[in-house]
């Protein structure tokens, strides 16, 4: 699978993406709002293997796509998109951009492209995104792509012995102009 935007190429993870994939998994800045322990190599290997297996599943219910610069093919991050509830055609979206590429609009550009794919190609009704209530950068991406804030789930994430909330945003097919 491949989605191309003005500046980016989003494509299925390939074997040669392992090093960058693993780097995102252990990057302290990427983990800051998600986990308080660094994943083991075994955990990363298993997740990478599952990612490769997802590509051939029919029907496909999870996409982990590498985000690369269109001009140089340099990887800058990844975007994840997975089915939550088939009965209401609901999916969830998330992203990780390597810190050296923060501030360039790559997450929002990639998210917009995946949302367009979701609504136009997959017939999705609702897409949600969640982020740690301290992660203002991720929340800005949700707003930039047109998602609506539904609320904040209080005290649902334990990191470094502190409880954090989780903002939840969503976008319905009726919210977008195809």
Description:
Helix content is 29%, strand content 37%. The chain has an eight-stranded mixed beta sheet with strand order 1-2-3-4-5-6-8-7, sandwiched between helices. It is globular, with a radius of gyration of 16 Å. It has a domain of 123 residues: Aminopeptidase (3-Layer(aba) Sandwich). Helix 1 crosses helix 3. A hairpin with a 5-residue loop joins strand 3 and strand 4. With 178 residues, the protein is an alpha+beta fold. The protein is built from five helices and eight strands; from the N terminus they run E-E-H-H-H-E-E-E-H-E-H-E-E.
Mean pLDDT: 95
- Assigned CATH superfamily of the domain at 2-124: Gcn5-related N-acetyltransferase (GNAT)
Quick one: overall form? globular
Q: Helicity, in percent? A: 25-40%
How is the largest sheet built, in terms of strand order? 1-2-3-4-5-6-8-7
Radius of gyration: 16 Å
CATH secondary-structure class of the domain at 2-124:
Alpha Beta
Looking at the structure, the CATH topology of the domain at 2-124 is Aminopeptidase
Number of separate helices:
5
> What is the H/E order?
EEHHHEEEHEHEE
Q: How far from one another are the termini?
A: 21 Å
Strand content: 35-45%
* Sheet with the most strands, sense and barrel status: 8 strands, mixed
Low-confidence stretches: none
CATH architecture of the domain at 2-124: 3-Layer(aba) Sandwich
The overall strand count is 8
SS-based class:
alpha+beta
């Amino acid at each position: 699978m491949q989605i191309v935007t003005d500046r980016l190429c989003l494509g299925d993870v390939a074997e040669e993406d392992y090093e960058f994939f693993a780097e995102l998994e252990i990057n302290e800045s990427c983990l800051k709002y998600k986990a308080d322990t660094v994943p083991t190599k075994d955990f990363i290997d298993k997740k990478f293997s599952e990612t490769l297996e997802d590509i051939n599943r029919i029907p496909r219910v999870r996409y982990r796509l590498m985000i690369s610069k269109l001009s140089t093919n340099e990887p800058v991050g990844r975007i994840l998109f997975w089915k939550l509830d088939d009965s209401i055609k609901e999916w969830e979206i998330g992203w990780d951009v390597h810190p050296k590429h923060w501030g360039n609009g790559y997450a929002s550009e990639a998210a917009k492209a995946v949302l367009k794919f979701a609504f136009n190609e997959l017939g999705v009704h609702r897409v949600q995104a969640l982020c740690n209530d301290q992660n203002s950068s991720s929340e800005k991406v949700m707003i930039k792509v047109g998602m609506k804030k539904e609320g904040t789930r209080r005290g649902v994430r334990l990191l470094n012995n502190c409880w954090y909330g989780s903002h939840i945003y969503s976008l319905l097919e009726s919210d977008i102009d195809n």
